[in-house]
Amino acid sequence: MSLSKARSINIAILALGGQGGGVLVDWIVGMAEHEGWTAQATSVAGVAQRTGATIYYVELVSKQDRPRPDAQPVLALMAVPGDVDVVIAAELMEAGRAVQRGLVTPDRTTLIASSHRIYSVLEKTTPGNGLADSEPVAQLLKDNARQLVLDDMQALAVKNGSVISASLFGALAGSGALPFPQSAFEGVVERNGVGVKTSLAAMRAAADLARQPIAQPKVAASGMETTARALPDRAAAPAVQPLLDRIRADFPAPAWNMLGEGLARVLDYQDVAYGQEYLDRVAAFVRFGDATTVAEAAHWIAVAMSYDDVIRVADLKTRPERWARVRREVGAGADEVVGTEEFFHPRLPEILGLLPVGLARRVQAHAGLSGWLAARFDKGRRIRAFSLRGHVQLRLVAGLRRLRRGNLRHAEEMQHIQQWLDAALAIAPQDLALATELLRCRRLVKGYSDTHARGSSRFDRLMQAAQLLRGREGAAAALASLREAALRDAEGKALSQRWSALQLPATA
Amino acid sequence: MAERSFAAEVRQLEVPAGTEFHGEGILAVTKALLECGVGYVTGYQGSPISHLMDVLADAQPILEKLGVYFEPAASEAAAASALSASVSYPVRGAVTWKSTVGTNVASDALANLASGGVTGGSLIIVGEDYGEGSSIMQERTHAFAMKSQMWLLDPRPHLPSIVKAVHDGFALSEASNTPVMLQLRIRSCHLHGSFITKENQRPKFTLNEALEAPVRDVNRIVLPPASFLHEKEKIENRWPAAVKYIQEHQLNEFIDGDIEHLGIITLGGLTNNVQRALQLLELGDLWGETRLPMYVLNVAYPLVEEEVLRFCQGKKAVLVVEEGQPDYHEQHLNTILRRHGVGTAIHGKDLLPMGGDYTVAALRSGIRGFVEKHHPAAFAKPVSLGMPTVPVASPKPAPVIPSSGNDIQLPPRPPGLCVGCPERPIFSSLKLAMQEHGQHHISSDIGCHLFSSQAPFDMGATTMGYGLGASSASAFNAGKLFGSSKRAIAMMGDGGFWHNGLATGIGNAVFNKHDNVFLIIDNNYSAATGGQDILSSRADNEHRSTRHPIENAVRGVGVEWVRFVSRTYDVNAMRDAISEAMTTEYDGPKVIIAQSECMLNRQRREKPKVAAAIKGGERVVKERFGVDAAVCSGDHACMRVSGCPSLTLAPSGDALKPDPVAHVDEACVACGHCGEVADSAVLCPSFYKVERVHNASGGDRWLNGLRHKVLGCWHRRTHAARAQRALFPLENLS
C-alpha cells in the first residue's frame, strides 16, 4: 500500500507559569489557521500551577499536502524525542531540559531559547552561591540544535516595552523555521489587537537578532562575582593619598586592586586612621612572599573590619545616592513623590553593642535592666527614611560612627579578628596555603542576629578545623571543602558530612 | 470569579449549524451538550475539567436562554446525586469532575444511580487524569465503569470525535437505561482544534414538567427486592441493549491495513499517538493510513464480543494498547478468544510498559517489538527490481541522544506558590513557630497550600484527599490520651473545607474531643482549581450566595477555640496565633482561620483598575519592595522562609561580596511578606518598601518639596564628609 510522506511541523514550547506560553501557542495556531493550515495544540496546564515548568505542544499541517480533499491529518498530543522541528524555551535551564528530554536533535530541531535565568527555589535558598552554571548548558544547546537562536529574550522584550512571548514569537519568525513570512507573524498579533505596537517592536528586534548567525552562545556570566576596580592613580580625598602611596610602596602589585577595594570600604566605614589599621593588618602577610595570600588578606580583613552593625545600616539607608537609586528602581522622575518604609528589628544585643564597653557589660550583668530594655527596644520598627522624622532618627544612629571604637560590639569584633589573624599568621610559615584558606573562611561571617550567630559558629568550627588539619597533607584543600560545605545549606548537614568524611574528631 | 474568563469564547456556543468551530476541547464539549438538548448540567471543578465548569459558568445566560439549568455542585458526590433527576424522567443531564479522585467521592451516588438505571440520557464527563501531571496518576476510571456497570466512552483526541462521543453518549445511555461515562484525557481537554457545528436544541422534556407532574417507581429505588431485580436487569437487558446500540451505530472503528494477519486494538483516546508511532515506523502516515489493521475502541467498556471476534478472525496476533494496570482489556480479550477457541495471540503488557504514560516513544518501541516478532519483513528494505529507485529510508532509528551534557545537573523546578501569595506568610509563620516549639506532625490537604511540602517550607507529612487534612490527623489525638508534649497540626483550604472538611474534619474533631490544631486557609476561592467562588467567597456573585464565613460554620458545629487572622501577611500575628494554639491549656479542637485573598485573583481584578485610575489622573500610591544590596548579607535566609518567586538574586556589585545578594524583581506586588518576615524572623534590615505617588496632590508636592530642601542640605553635608575619606570619587549628587 502507498503511504504518504507528508509530515506535520512539530513545535514544543517550554515555559514557566506566568511567562505567557499560552499566548505564544495561540499566536502560532492563529497564524497557521489564517494561512490555511490545520493546527492542533495541547498542553498539560494543571501542572503549570504556579511557577512550575509546562510544555505546550503544537502540530501544523499544510492543507496542500492532503492526498484527498477530505483527508484529515491524525495529530499526536505530545512531543516525541527525535521528531520535533522547533523548540522554544523561555528560560535557559528549561532549554537545557528540552535537550535532556531528547526534544532537540541535531538533524532536525531549530532551538529558540532565552538565555536569561529564573532561579529555582533550591538555587536561591543556598546560603552561599547555589546558582547553576549557565555556560555548559549553553554549550549543550549549541551541540544539539540544528539551528540555535539564543539571547536574552526577556531583556529584549522589556527594552521594547513588551513581554517575552512577543520576543520569542519574533525570533521564531526570524529563524525561518516556519514556512510563513514575517507579515503573517505580525498579522496575527495585529488582529489580536492587544499591545500591538510594543509587541511588534519586540518581535522585529528579535527577528533581526534571529537572522544573525551566532558564533558562540551568549549567556550572562553565571558567576555573580564583581571584579575589583583598578587602583586609582590619585586618591579622591587628599587625606587618603598617603595610604594609597603606602599600598604602591609596600604591597605586591597583584594585590593592589583588592587592597584598593578594601581600603575604600574601611575608610567609608570609619575614618582614615581605621584605613591605616587596615593596611597594618594586611601588611603582616606580605613577608610570606605570596601575592594571592596578600590579596585574600586584603579582601577578608576589610570585610571583617567593616562588620554589619546598626550604625552602618543607618548610614547606608540615608545616603543621597540611595535616594537616586530607589527612584531609578521604580522609574520615577526627580520631581515625582516617592517614599520608602524600612524594616528594622534591632534586638537587645545590637542595642547593647552600641553602648560603651563598661556600661554595656554592667547592663548585661543586670538581668532586670536587660529585661526592661529588651521589652522596650526589641520589636519590629518601620522607619520612613525619606521623611524628616525618619531621616533624623537614622542619622542620629549613623552619627554613632564617631563613638564606634569605644562600643562593645567593636571590642568583640576586634578580639575575634585578632584571634583569626593570629591563627593564620601562626600557620602561614609552615603551610601558607592552609593559612590562605583560613583567611577565606571569613566569608562565613555575615549578616545580623541569628544569621550572624550561625555564620560565626561555623567560622569558629573552621578555625578549629584549621588547627586539626595542620600538618596533614592536603590540609588547605580539606579546609576549602569544609568551607564550601558550610555554605551549601543553612542546617549545616553538608558541613557535618564533610567533617566526618575528613575523619575529624567529633567536637564538643 | 474564576481565574480565566471564557466570556469571549462562549459566544461561539450560539453560532448557527454548519459553522466551523475553533476552540479547546472543553468548549467543544459544552457546544455538544447544547446540541444534544441537555436539561441540566452540574459538576465539581478540578484539573483537567476546571475550564469546563468555568465555560459553563460564563455561558450561564446562553444556557438560560435555552432552558438549561446549571449549578456548580458542592462536591462530586453532590453532582452525581443530581443525576437522579434522570432516573424517572426523560430529561438529559450531564455532570463533570476530575477522575479518579472525584469519581471516588461520587461513587456512592454512582453505585445507586447505576443500580436503578436511568430513563433520561445521563452523561458523566470525567477529566481522566491518568499519567503526567496528575494527582493520582496510576488509577483509571475504567475500574469504576466495570464495578458499577456504566458504559465508558474514550473518544479519539480529535474535536469531531469528542463532539460525536457526547451525542453518542446520551443516545447510548437512553438505549440501555444506563449512565454513560465520557472520559477526556488531560491533553484532550486542553486540545485546540475545530469541528462543524449542529443546531442547539432545547430540552425535549424539562425539569419543570417533572415538577408539575411528579412520578415515582419503587422499582428504581435501591431496596430489596428491587435491588435484586437491578442486577438481573443489568445483565439481561441493559448490557445487551448497549452492545446492540454500539454495534448498530458503529461507535467503534475498524481500519484496514495490508498486513492482515496482525492487528492493533487500541483505546480511542490513544489512537492518535498509536498512529504517530506507526508513521515514525513507516507503517502508517499522517492521514491515518496504516499497514497494520486497527480496531479502535471508542467505547472502552463494555467490549463487544462479536466485534472482537470479527477483528481477530484469521489474525496471528494482535497488540492491545491500554495504559496502566491492571491490564483489564488484555485479560478480557484473552477470555473472549479462549472461550471461543480462537488462537490469536494477544500481546500487550509484555511489549508495552506496565505503567506510566503511553508516549509515542513508548508506543513506537512496543509496536516495533510486536511487528519484529510476527512480521519482521515489514522492516526489510525493498529489493530493487529493474529500475533503480530512490533508496527508501529504513525505519527511524532510536532518538538521537544528546551528544554531551546529559550529566549536567539542571536545577529542578517544582510548582510553588505565586508572587504575593497570602499562604506563603502562613507557612513562614508556622516555620517560625516550629523553630520555637519544635517540629510538629503536620497533616496536609489538597490545594495550593500543598506546595508547602516543597522547598523552602518542607512541611506536611501526608495528604489524604480533598478536605481530609483535618480528619487525617485524628489518630494523633492519641497524644491527648497518652500524654504527648506536642499536638498534631492539620491544614486544609477553604475549598476542601466546604467540599467535606466541615463534616469529616471539624465536626469529627468536635465530636471526638480532639486536642489537635486545625489551620484553615481561606483565600476567598477554590483557588487551586482556578479561583471559583465558594460559600465563603467575599465577592458578590450574581448567580450564587456568597459571604458565609467559615468561622460561623465551625462555631456552628461546636468549636469554641477559634482565632481569626484577617491579614495573613501579618507574620507576627500569624505566628502568635499558631504558637498559642500549640501551647494553650484549652482542651479541645483549636481552629485558626487565616484569611487573605488569593493574590492571582486580586491582581487580575485590581491591576486594570489601578492602571485606569492612573491614566484618569487620580492620585494612586503604587508600592513595591526593594533590597539594599549594600546591606544584604548574601546569606539568603529571607528566601528560606519566603520562597517568593519575585524575591530573587542579583550580583552584589561589590568586589568584596562574592555571594549574590537578594533582589526584588519587577513582578513584586508589594504584599510585604519579605519585609514582614525579615522583621519577625529578625533577619536583616535590607528590605524596604517604595511608595511612588502617581498624580500627586498639592499637599504631596508641598511636603515633598520641603523634604527635598531640608534633606538635600543634610545630604550635601554628609556626602561632603564622606568625600573627605574617599579613595574612589563618590557618585555626583544631582
TrEMBL record, chain A:
Keywords: Oxidoreductase. Residues 17-206 form the Pyruvate/ketoisovalerate oxidoreductase catalytic domain. Residues 258-464 form the DUF6537 domain. InterPro entries: DUF6537 (IPR046667), Pyrv/ketoisovalerate_OxRed_cat (IPR019752), Pyrv_flavodox_OxRed_cen (IPR002869). This is Indolepyruvate oxidoreductase subunit beta family protein. Gene3D superfamilies: Pyruvate-ferredoxin oxidoreductase, PFOR, domain III.
UniProtKB/TrEMBL annotation, chain B:
Keywords: Metal-binding, Oxidoreductase. Residues 445-593 form the Thiamine pyrophosphate enzyme TPP-binding domain. It comes from the Bacteria. It holds the Pfam family TPP_enzyme_C. This is Thiamine pyrophosphate-dependent enzyme. It comes from Hydrogenophaga defluvii.
